[in-house]
Amino acid sequence: MPITEKIRVLIVDDISETRENVRRLLQFDNAVEVVGMARGGQEAINLSQSLKPDVVIMDINMPDMDGITATEAIRRKVPYTQIVILSVQSDPGYMRRAMLAGARDFLTKPPSIDDLTAAIHRAGEMAIDERSKLASSFPTASTTGGTSSPGMAGKPLGKIIMAYSPKGGSGTTTIVTNLAIALHSEENHAILIDASLQFGDVAVFLNEQVKNSLLELVPRAEELDPDVVKDVAIHHSASGIDILAAPPRPEMAEKVNADQFGKMLQYLRQMYAYVLLDTSSYLTDVVQVSIEAADLIVLITTQDIPAIKNANSFLTLTDASGIKREKIIFTMNRFDKRISITPERVGESLRQPIPIAIPLDDRIVSGSINRGVPFVIDNKAQPTSKAVFQLADLVRERLTNPEGQPEAAGKK
Ligand SMILES: Nc1ncnc2c1ncn2[C@@H]1O[C@H](COP(=O)(O)OP(=O)(O)OP(=O)(O)O)[C@@H](O)[C@H]1O
Ligand SMILES: [Mg+2]
């Protein structure tokens, strides 16, 4: 008895007149049912969770929470719900942020009735389709390989964790390779992407040969499937993580399109619980897209003044871009307690506490890099490993409680 399903729509706008206008435009469309209206971002998230609409028509500028943040949260909580952004601004920057947050479509205000219904029908079909796919695939694991395959089958979207230092050589690659391994488990798989595109060395750190690189995935960002990803990724059998290597030659870096890179990240979140990014200190388009997409940024500094000065400039930049300080885990690497520039002092002066300090240990760290065996694998009890495990715990904690207050480590 195939009754054609109606597309269930939630309208979100802080101005009641706009909500009413949109509702009125839709009332003669028999395929559409308006199931609710929300006055702000937080209410939109709550109603999406309880009503599980197929499509959310989302305003961008709202006093309590902007529409992009709400979009991201809804996509994470109700992955099949599709979001159509309705905004007065039509500039590409906004559109890109909206798309990266997981929005399906973007219309400018006021929309024509034709544009609005076309967008809702497109998004609605997509939602109904994804909902039925989720329902049918839920109990069975997805079909890739023999191992228990991550993501897809109704699991929440994975998290993007980016490691970054605005000063080269601070230990970004060292930390992110060890962190990826510390986070990975049977249930929660990790993939490590080498987004240090010109001179990426993740594969070297893990003693793996590069057959394919992310150049094989990025251009296909819109048509990925788990088999293609598994084919291109390198499986690091010593730890279980997957790796997406940087292009084999520096000049190939420019072939990577930043928008497509962003789309690939969003796809990988459906397959992996943790999508980790190693980056270069230079703020390329790819690094900027990563910053926007990241759920957490592990910002790395050392105890030198130039590194601290650069970290300060980076924080000024992220503040200006509206990136919340809670998204940043400020980490001190090569920590030597004999030096008076302590994590507490740096945290205080940059107003960003440093909850993690990874000790300086030339023997353990350079030994592990030269052997291609991250220290968390075979030197678990060493202080450097303990600090990375502590970082992994903090990452998990912050991801489950993103609004949580930053630790008091840098406070008096
Ligand atoms: N905690 C540590 N103790 C001692 N040496 C360390 C530590 N962390 C990193 N190093 C050393 O610092 C050097 C740079 O590390 P790494 O390549 O991880 O930095 P990076 O920030 O990724 O550099 P790049 O800017 O080139 O990408 C390596 O030789 C490594 O052995
Ligand atoms: Mg590096």
Q: What attributes characterize this protein structure?
A:
single chain; 412 residues; alpha/beta; Rossmann fold; 2 domains; eight-stranded mixed beta sheet; five-stranded parallel beta sheet; 13 strands; globular; disordered C terminus; binds adenosine-5'-triphosphate; binds magnesium ion; AAA_dom; ATP hydrolysis activity; ParA/MinD_ATPase
Account of the 3D structure:
With 412 residues, the chain is of the alpha/beta class. It has 2 domains: 7-137, Response regulator (Rossmann fold, 3-Layer(aba) Sandwich); 159-410, P-loop containing nucleotide triphosphate hydrolases (Rossmann fold, 3-Layer(aba) Sandwich). It has helices at 16-26, 41-51, 67-77, 92-100, 113-137, 172-183, 202-205, 226-232, 258-271, 285-293, 305-320, 343-349, 362-371, 375-378, 383-400; strands at residues 7-12, 32-38, 55-59, 82-87, 105-108, 159-164, 190-195, 234-235, 242-244, 274-279, 296-301, 328-335, 356-359. Strands 8-9-7-10-6-11-12-13 form an 8-stranded mixed sheet, sandwiched between helices. Helix 2 runs parallel beside helix 3 (67-77), helix 6 (172-183) packs across helix 15 (383-400) and helix 9 packs parallel to helix 10. The longest helix is centred in the first third of the chain and has 25 residues, at 113-137. The protein is globular. Residues 172-173, 196, 201, 278 line the site of magnesium ion.
